[in-house]
Prior knowledge:
- The structure is a single chain.
- This protein is an all-alpha fold.
- It has helices at residues 3-23, 25-45, 49-54, 56-77, 84-89, 95-125, 132-158, 163-189, 197-225.
- The relative contact order is 0.15.
Amino acid sequence: MSPPMWRDAVLVAGKDLRIEARSRVATNQVAPFAIVILVLFGFALDPDRGVLGRASAGLFWVAVLLSALLAVQRSFAVEAGDGVADGLRLSGLDPAGVFLGKAAAVAAQLALLQVVLAVGIVVLYDADLGGPALLLATSAAATVGLAAAGTVYGVLAAGLEVRETLLPLLLLPVVAPVLLSATRAWEAGMGISVDDGWRWAQLLAVFAVVYVTLGILAFGALLEES
């Protein structure tokens, strides 16, 4: 990987994060949306606190997945008007660097969101985050995979008029293994199950490597077609 690619990745990530910091969409809309999801699940399952506790890992990752859709849509929506997307294509930036930068910006937002959600499940569901090493490793691998897959399918849907509805249809089936693997790993880390959580974390790492590689190789062609 060439130094210019990393330079371009830093430029794009910085640009996207500055836009989000100024607009505060992530803090004022995405994070509250994720918390509302946890609260609604809590209302639905509150009569049975045992079920709520056992399902807390799955509910956490469902909230992360739904919020990731908003973050990815937002990442490409800011470039949908005023010829910004054309400017990005003609900027001479390395497409692989653009991909890595946009994925890194989405990953940073998801990481912060997971901190908020982790506090949420502890407060609302009385969850026990007793295996921090496994939980952190799982979150890191899942976040990279979600951000990379979301960026690949985000640029694929960006040029279409129905991108808001098409993106969930394209992305959710692809990231279903992330929901399964991350939930199993977190259940092991939280002491809910006796599964080998590190095996699930390794599967998430493979998913992340596959989608980062796919994005580096294919993002340029997808950007030209969008």
